[in-house]
Amino acid sequence: MRLSFTTKAVIALALFAALLSVVKFDHCYNSNWTGVGVDVHECYSDLPALFDARGLVDHIWPYSSATNSVEYPPLTGMVMWATALITPRGTFSDKYYFLINIVLLALLFIGTSVLVSRINPKRWYLLPLLPAVIASMYINWDLWGVITALAAIYWFDRKRYGLSSTVLAISIATKFFPIILLIPIVTIFIHRQEIKFAARYLIQTIAIWIVINAPFAITTPKGWWRFFKLNESRPADLGSLWQALNIFNINPRDINLYWIAIFILVSAAISIRLLRRKTIPTLAQIAFIFVALFTALNKVYSPQYVLWLAPLAVIALTDDGDRAAFWIWQGSEAIYHFAIWEYLGGYAGAQFALPPKWYAMAIFIRISASLFFAYKILLSTRDFAPQEEEFLLSDVGS
What we know:
Layout: H1 5-24, H2 26-31, H3 37-40, H4 46-53, H5 74-85, H6 93-119, H7 131-136, H8 143-156, H9 161-175, H10 182-191, H11 195-219, H12 221-233, H13 241-247, H14 255-275, H15 283-297, H16 306-316, H17 323-348, H18 356-380, H19 388-393
Helix pairs in contact: 1-6, 4-6, 5-9, 6-8, 6-16, 8-9, 8-16, 9-11, 10-11, 10-14, 10-15, 11-12, 13-18, 14-15, 15-16, 15-18, 17-18
């Protein structure tokens, strides 16, 4: 199968971004992720850290412990475990494990970029050029969930609902955040008065998710449940609105109640606004809105979460009017990426650490910019009818 010139360009630029990200993590690789330089050089990665901390170095089953199982859904756990099995043992096993995983993550990023080019052939080049994306590529295994979420969007907008729901279930079983996509999906079905399709999509997604999770829940229930338990019980954590408020001595008692209630209310308001329009935007155009809201209100915002948002942001760009808001948001992500590591450097003993209140301001800036861009997307899609023919034409020659 011959690749089109555009596809070759996408692969080349994405590969360049992936290699550039390797350079960013070079200091930590050479120092084996030890010392103050991990934060100062902003090159921390969960890949080698959890390889040791969760017993993967000894090939321990990732969900065997009630207190030290991997803190991710089962498919991510399987990736972590499978790559550990093929990692050579010895003094440099951490480095080998990191290298094996970043090769896979680089391939996933290339695939993600290709999917973005299929959905938005006019703006695809933005994704591999974003500094915050390049800086965050190898922090965690998030790209496994990102590419599957994007594939679910791609097939949904082509009305291949069975394939879309299958891939979405896989994505939820990998990183869980894609469950948020069910809100705009149901909204689109309701607007089209396709209630049966909505019910079928939901039932199939949930059923496949259960099938994937059932073996883990049955055989190692406490280890499998640890992911959900940690998310329910965790306090205000890094990067969240709630942590920023705590830094300024504002301490809401029940964060779970507040963030979930606000998320439901605002999501309902957005869905109602979309339902009142004559035409409904595509899932590609509105997915960012709901995921951005989720990340703005959640109890944690790890720096690699920009990988959740960036592809959705690029596929949502429909006109030149959104681009200023897009770059304002991306600028805020770059500021936040710098701020979190320099803030953490203070705890590691760095000489020039970022003071807590400056870090809190970086959080407020990031959240405000992401919601501003989401609002601009909501406005720009007001009278925009889905252009299915344009999507299909973008596949020709690839």
